[in-house]
From TrEMBL:
Assigned GO CC terms: membrane
Pfam families: MFS_1
Protein's name in the database: MFS transporter
Molecular function as annotated in GO: transmembrane transporter activity
Length: 568
């Protein structure tokens, strides 16, 4: 649903001021201010025009490039060919051998194929006792995502969306550049940690920014567009790896240079006007709106005024009339600041009755989807041994899922979509249990199992995008960044523990598919506790805070009528 028709009828409100002042102004032919809400102002300056498409293109391309390093681990840690010889042989007598033989006692080895396409495994000799560093490096990039989600959620509240987006782009560019000059695996792994930190925080901030600055249609497509960039990155990196798989190319040519180029285009990003209004920085909000309107070639009225700003000014005028006296006003302004400025944090997700149950249910469903996503990726690797086939196959599958997710996000209620995804995932996991009981060496069984895994991957990837859309809609502007930080943290935490859990299940001769199937079915009735957000306007404040934010003159004036002790 597009709000254009509704907005066009509600853009202008009554001129601010009493009737007497209006008559006086009319007598002097002074134009009255055009009073609009922040949503109407964004519609006037253009919320689906050139500026928005430039920003979306920049953000999706950044996600595409970031996928190169995130998804390039199979190439970065590719196992090289090894030649072995024992103590009674010379190096010239060495023959190709397996890693197990090379690491056996009384065996020497070396890398016979000396060329420029070195992996980190060969560069830093990570086989044998050092083979665990691949897993450690992978865990560190995920740990960076956890840290980035938590830290930059708070930074997004204090510093703003624009600053976080630009800062995270620099973090990714610098960390990938420094990784090129790594002298050992420890330095490289540290660079990966910062890269993961920057990317996850960037992704979260981008969804928040696009939610607050674009039209209803683009807002619903934003997570899908960013994810499409990621999926294309998986496909492109597999193609680039056919040219050169050197880890220097991955960090410098494929990642650092493109990111530095993209940073030069980020200067056009302005701060989110919704965020500035939430922080009561009305003049800065109008400057941002004017900047967007100029890029979109949509001129604004010279006397444009924000309804929120006028309400704030009216409140201050009322206080001045009621209180009078500078000292009392100073005391009241201090009290006003204490009441009006609400300091938010992660605990707000659980503090308010309107959010607590919602957050618990979404945490359960989000972690369940995330765990199944990484388990399916782990399972695919067992069926397709070729690295290029894995990445291209997963990339194409996710690309289809994100396109389909965008289609259904525009047409169907969120809860209906999520219910269908949970049911589909539950059924497929149940089918896995049956498939694994069959002869796994049979070609037909292997094909059916592999197709089922791909179908599961499609369903879960679709679910991830729909969940991002729902989270952006169900949480208000004042704490939306904390919601994305919290769920981003949960995603990366699940990603760290999912592979060891799967390996543990395999070692004890069991599989996680039956419990996962049950958990998916349990999640379906939980949806009744969530509110539907499809075709609903975004909320700016938590329900419990709306009366303070929108009608804060009532509690403050009541407080001001109480005696004030100026001698304290």
């Amino acid at each position: 649903m597009d709000y254009s028709a509704d907005l066009s009828q509600k853009l202008l409100s009554k001129p601010f001021g009493d009737n007497q002042s209006q008559k006086s102004n009319n007598s002097h032919k002074t134009a009255q201010p055009y009073t609009v809400t922040i949503e109407a102002a964004l519609f006037l300056c253009g919320n689906a025009h050139k500026y928005q498409f430039k920003v979306i293109t920049l953000m999706s391309l950044t996600c595409l490039v970031a996928a190169f390093l995130n998804m390039g681990f199979p190439y970065l840690f590719d196992t090289p060919q090894v030649a072995c010889y024992n103590s009674s042989q010379t190096k010239e007598e060495a023959t190709y051998c397996s890693i197990e033989n090379a690491c056996s006692e009384n065996t020497n080895y070396y890398y016979p194929d000396q060329n420029s396409n070195k992996s980190l495994t060969e560069q830093f000799d990570l086989i044998c006792a050092e083979d665990s560093y691949e897993g450690i490096s992978g865990a560190l990039i995920l740990l960076g995502g956890c840290i980035g989600s938590l830290y930059y959620a708070d930074s997004t509240e204090k510093a703003g969306r624009q600053k976080v987006i630009k800062e995270c782009m620099w973090i990714m560019a610098i960390s990938s550049l420094l990784a090129t000059f790594s002298i050992n695996i420890y330095m490289f792994s540290l660079c990966l940690l910062f890269f993961g930190l920057g990317y996850r925080a960037f992704f979260n901030a981008c969804i928040i920014y696009l939610t607050e600055t674009t039209s209803n249609t683009i807002r619903q497509l934003a997570p899908n567009i960013l994810s499409i960039g990621w999926a294309l990155g998986q496909i492109i990196i597999a193609i680039l790896a056919m040219i050169n798989t050197s880890w220097y190319y991955f960090t410098f040519i494929y990642t650092a240079i493109p990111l530095l180029v993209l940073i030069t285009f980020s200067r056009t990003i302005v701060e989110s006007p919704r965020y500035l209004v939430m922080k009561k920085k009305f003049q800065e909000a109008k400057v941002a709106i004017i900047s967007i309107s100029k890029i979109n070639f949509r001129p604004l009225p010279e006397n444009l005024m924000l309804q929120e700003e006028i309400k704030q000014q009216a409140f201050k005028n009322n206080l001045d009339k009621i209180l009078g006296g500078n000292k009392i006003m100073q005391q009241t302004q201090q009290n006003q600041g204490l009441i009006q400025t609400k300091v938010h944090s992660f605990k707000c997700l659980f503090e308010y009755n309107s959010l607590r149950i919602r957050t618990f249910i979404l945490t359960y469903l989000w972690c369940l989807l995330s765990f199944a996503y990484f388990v399916s990726a782990f399972a695919i690797e067992h069926f397709a041994g070729n690295i290029n086939v894995n990445l291209i196959g997963m990339g194409i599958g996710e690309l289809i899922a994100y396109l389909y997710s965008g289609y259904i996000s525009l047409r169907y209620p969120r809860k209906d979509i999520i219910r269908g995804i949970l049911f589909t995932a539950g059924v497929i996991h149940l089918a896995f249990f049956v498939f694994l009981a069959l002869d796994r060496t049979n070609s037909f069984v292997k094909i059916i199992t592999f197709v089922s895994i791909i179908a599961l991957r499609l369903a879960i990837s679709t679910g991830n995008c729909v969940f991002n859309v729902y989270i952006a809609e169900v949480y208000p502007t004042s704490i939306r960044h904390y919601a994305f930080g919290y769920f981003g943290f949960a995603t990366k935490l699940i990603a760290i523990f999912a592979p060891p859990f799967v390996q543990l299940c395999e070692s004890i001769g069991t599989n996680p598919f039956i419990p996962l199937s049950i958990f998916f079915f349990i999640g379906i009735p939980m949806l009744t506790k969530l509110r539907e957000t499809f075709e609903q306007a975004l909320k700016e404040q938590v329900e419990e805070e709306e009366s303070v934010f929108l009608q804060n003159d009532i509690p403050l004036i009541s407080m001001a009528q109480k005696p004030v002790n100026l001698n304290r």
